[in-house]
Every structure is written in C-alpha cells, then in structure tokens.
Description:
This protein has 2 domains: about 5-355, YVTN repeat-like/Quinoprotein amine dehydrogenase (Methylamine Dehydrogenase, Chain H, 7 Propeller); about 360-465 and about 600-629, Methylamine Dehydrogenase, Chain H. Helices cover about 5% and strands about 45% of the residues. The strands form 14 sheets. Strands 2-3-8-7-6-5 form a 6-stranded antiparallel β-sheet, with no helix packed on it. A hairpin with a 5-residue loop joins strand 33 and strand 34. Mean pLDDT is about 90; it is low at about 5-70.
Amino acid sequence: MKQSSVLQTRSWLIPFGLASGAASALLALSVLGSCSHGGAPDHVDDPTRLDLPYHAVDLGFPDGGTATSECDSPCWLNPLPQGNFLQSVWMDSTGNGWAVGENSLLRIEGDKIQLVRHPAWQRQSLLEAVWGSGPNDVWAVGNVVLHYDGSQWTELPEYTSKGMSAVWGTGPSDVWMVSILGTTHHYDGSTWKSVPSGTTRSLYTITGSSASDAWVGGQYGTLLRWNGTAWATTTGPTTDALGSLSCAASNDCWLLPFAYKEVSGKTLYHWDGIRWNKQSGTPDRSFFSVTAVSASEVWLTGPTTFRFDGTAWVDTSPGTTDLALSHVAARGGKEALGVGLYGHMARWTGTSWRTLSSGPKNQIHGVWSSPQGDVFFVGASGALARYRGGKLDWPGPPGTSATYFSVWGTSSQDVWVVGEYGRIIHYNGTSWTEVMSGSREHLRTITGTGPSDVWVVGDNRVFLHYDGSKFSDSPPIAGLSGAKALWFRSATEGWIGGTSGTLASWDGSKWSVWPKQFGRDITAIWGRGSSDVWATGGDLLTDPMVIRYNGTTWESHASPVGLHGPTSLWGTGALDLWMTSYYGGLAHWNGSAWQQIPLGTIHRINGIAGVGDSLFPAGEYGLVMKVKR
C-alpha cells in the first residue's frame, strides 16, 4: 500500500533529477505551519558499523540517539538514524520492516535501525514506496526499482528513471507497480510485464483486497479498477488528485484526495462495496495518507495522526510537528510503524508512539573547525553544536532561541557567532557571552585574522570591525551591495563579494572595488595565499560560476558539472578545495579536476569544515555528516 504524500511532491519538484531544497522548505512550511523544535539530546556519539548480510550501517538507538564507534562514509551524525524525509514503510508479520524516502532505505529490526547502502544510492536515487510479501521478498520503487531476497538488494535497470510511484501486491507472484507516466506493471513471480492502463495521466497510489480486485488512483481524480483480467476506468467521487488509497477488504476501502497543488487532504471517502461515500465526522485536519488495516483500525497520518477504532477517530499524535508521520504500516490490533518528515520514525505500542529517531531538526547555517580539532555548528532556533572527541554535543547558548548564520574563531577558546537582529555571542572556552554589535540588522558572515581583527557583514550594507575591545561600524563599500562572502589572509589582505559578481579587495586601510563584475552573486570566497583565491556563485538551474585570482587578475575557472546553487568553499591548499551546494551537493577540486562526492541526500548543504582526514558538511533540517576525505 502506498500513498502520494508530502515526500512525493518533494521529488516532483526536482530539476535535473534532484530535489529542490527551496521546494522542500516551502513544502514543510505550507503543510506544517510554524514549526517548534524540541530539545536536543545531550550528545550524539559516532554511529557504529554492523556485520549484516546486506551493506548496512547501524546509525543509532532510540531514546537519546546514543551510538558508538564509526560508520561508513558519508556518516550521519544528526539526525539519527538519518535525516532524509521518509515516505513509505512496510512491516512484516514479526513487527520488523523497511522504510524508504528520498535516497534512504532503512531496515527496522525491533527498535534498532540500519541505513542500507542500496545499489543506486550514489546516483541520488529517489525511493517513493516499499512493499513486501515477506522478509525475503521486498520491493522498493521510485526512479529506481530494487528487490530484496532476504540477503541482498538488487536493481532492475530496465526501470531506472521510469517514475515508479507505488508498489503493492497480494503475494510473491502477484505484485504491481504504477508510475507517474500512467503505466502499470505486473510481476508474476518470474517476470515483470507492462499491462495497459488505459490512461496517460500520472498514477500515484495502488491498493487492493485480492488478485482480482485492485484500485489505482491518480491525477485529476483518475480511478482505475482491476478485475483480474484488465484495468477499467471508473467514475470516482472527485476530480482532485487521488493521493492515498487503502483497502482492508473488497467492501472496505478508503480514499484521501488532494486538492490542486496540495500535498495533503482533508476530505475522506469510504468504499462500501457499491459506492464511494463522503465521510462525516472525520478530523478537521490535513493528512498525507490513509492506511486501512481492518474495519476497526484505520490510520490517518500527517502533522497530526489519528486512528479509527470502528466507532470514532482518536488523536494519537506523537508530539510536535517535528514528529509528523507521512505513512503507517500496521499489524492488525497489535502494533504499527510510522515514518515521516525529517527522518522521523516511531513504533505504536498499542497505546502510544515510541520514537525511534532522535536529534534536533534546526537548520544549520554555519560551520567552522578550530586548530584544536573541534568543529562548531550554528543555526536556527538557538542551534549551536560542537563535535569533539567523536561526540556531537548540542549545548546551545543558554536562554536564547535566536537564529545564527555564521561562526568563526581563532581557537576553541575564542569563538565568535553572529546571527539575526545584530546578535553576536562569544565563547571563551568555558561560557558564552553576548557582545553588543550596535546593529539590528541580520549579520550574515564573520571572519578575521586574529583576536583583535574580526570582520562582520550584514544586511543593508552593515559592515563591522572588532579591534579586540569593541565592534565599530566600518563605512559601506561604494559600488558593492549584498555582501555575504568574506575572506582574509592577513590584516592587510582580504576579499569581499556581493551581488552581481562584484568583488572588492582590502589592503589594510581601504577597500577597492574590482573593475569587472562577474554577473552572479558571490556566495563564498576561500584562498590559500595572495596568488590563489577562489570565489563562487550561481543559481539553482545552472552549474556554478567559479573564478580564481592569480595575484594579478580574476579568471574564469572550471566548475563542478551538476552542482547547483553553491553555498560554501573550504580547503587546505591548491590540491584540496571543497564546494557545497543545494540538493546535497559536495564536490572536490584535486588540482586538475572536480569530482562530485555523493552524500545520499537532497538536503541543501550550507557549510563545511574539516579536521584531519574528516569533513563535516551541515545544512537543512539539522543535517550534520562526517565524510572521509
């Protein structure tokens, strides 16, 4: 059983086969409204590797997210077990199961979760639905089709990029897939065959009660029914997209349509064996999916989760909107598994939901690594974390929920953070202290050359300098606006970048605007010396602009093909430069060519820093990863 939900819409909005982080954020806001974030765990250790018959990594434990040792690169440190949006879950007769969403495939065994590196994960494959006839026969579909035989996952290459949106069956020799291209496909235990659907409209969901009774829902109210021989178009109760269908019996099916451009629905219909009946008395909420288990157990999942007991709908919501469920799989009257936004996973015990995932979901905007090997992360709603000694701690500055945009320092005992409404805080190795900035503008970037030479840029051409005792206004740079990218080599040498590819250089006493503009907003600058400075910028639809300063002039440079919306640069030298971007982008310059490094996510990566042989990309929805260099 599969639903078309918020996660599927994320993937529909993907240009060039990658999901839009901007669309993801809009989606979460439009569906959930204003999100409040729960408390963070005291710490999250590095996860550990398991010896399993398939390639899997144990990414943590419930109730605190504590794990030990290392996991394969790229390794999720937050959230745990991972942070990709999950769309579909299937549960076997023992209560174990599989979950999928975006590029993630997860094995659930009791309360332990394993992230499985499936055969197509490096290609940024998007998985929409999962279904199985038993522990040794599981199918996962999306822009790839995968099968698990109890030992390993294999890919069916003939279905790559075919837009499969749902999978369902009655047994190992009766399995169906449908696609957004309007196609239906049947597996008889040995071979997949295309079966005429009679429509070219997108198909989103499939369910049924037997091998001779199945339903498919799709675009513009398209409703198909299988009689054991052929698909026939039937008249449905609405012209809205049929987002979620689920049957408990041939005379007990539920339908949740989505209005135009919506990713959830409020109106519910029930099939009694004769007609579709609009339901009254249903919760006045928006839902992503409906799951029918029996006449006395039906689930509606979304920002709130309800269970129908045959008489009334009961609110079973697991908590804040961080814990919103997109889909539920259940064993009748016993237990259920739920998955959803931000990688949330939970198990229904019969009376309440027990959360299996952990970690804050705050946006991470800035990353910085200290000479001592600590890595600091800052972000929305007071998010402030430090990675030290194999542990990710989330202490946060006390008494604040401010959003922070950038972090920089000279050591682990001298760390600066800037954020919204002119907020600046300083860490001395023991405690955080607020420092007056004299501004109420959002402060976007902080960097410097030492304890008495710190620079800050903000909105509306705010430009601040710290001399070791206080921050003072610096005159705006004539001819440069929208500055966010800032880099200094010394107190007498630095560069700043702004809108339309405008650059200016610092000589210790004044800023000089470079005479040529490069057309795109500068988003990041990094350098290793006076004659080797890099800058990047760009939009979400084209490859990044990369320019390089050789000590005399700025020149266009090769850019990583396929990355869109560059967000940051970090490196150690001419042979080691890293770029991050939207859609989970990470690329490495080795001195002669760019190489993309798959992260297995479509979340935007906002920043990156490194320590030793490890990199730490961070970004949307609390994402923090550890990547081997």
